[in-house]
Amino acid sequence: MKHVIRIILLTVFLVVTASIWDGLFSTTLVKLLLNVDFIWPNSTIVLDFTYHLLTTTVIYVIFISLPARYQKIYIVSLFFITLFLYFILSTIAIQSFPITIWALSGWIVIHLLFMMLLATYRKTYTHKK
C-alpha cells in the first residue's frame, strides 16, 4: 500500500509543480504533461491522469527494483528521455503546444524535482528493507 501512495504522490507532485510553473511563467506544462490526444483524441482529464499514473508506476517499479549500482545510470537515462519527450510530445500532440524556453525550462525543472523525490523514496525503501 505504501508504494501505491508514493506513486500517487509522485504523480500529483508532478502535476502540482507543473501547475505552479504554469502560473508563474504562463506556460502550458500541465496540459502537455497530461495530454494523450495522440492516443485517445477524445480523452478526459481522468483518462489523461490515469495514463500518467501508469507511466509513473512503471518508472517507480523499475527504479526501486534496480540494484543500487544501476540507479544513477537509470536517472541519467530518465532525464534524457524526459528531455526528448518534451519535443516529441509537443510535436505529435493534436493540440498545439508552443516550444518556448520557459516551457522547456519548466519541463526540465519539474522532472528533476520528480527524480529527486523518486530517489528519496528509493533511499527509504532500501533502508527499511
From TrEMBL:
Q: Which of UniProt's keywords are assigned here?
A: Membrane, Transmembrane, Transmembrane helix
Residue ranges annotated as transmembrane are: 7-29, 49-66, 73-93, 99-121
Phylogenetic placement of the source organism: Bacteria, Bacillati, Bacillota, Bacilli, Bacillales
Indicate what this protein is called per its UniProt record. Uncharacterized protein
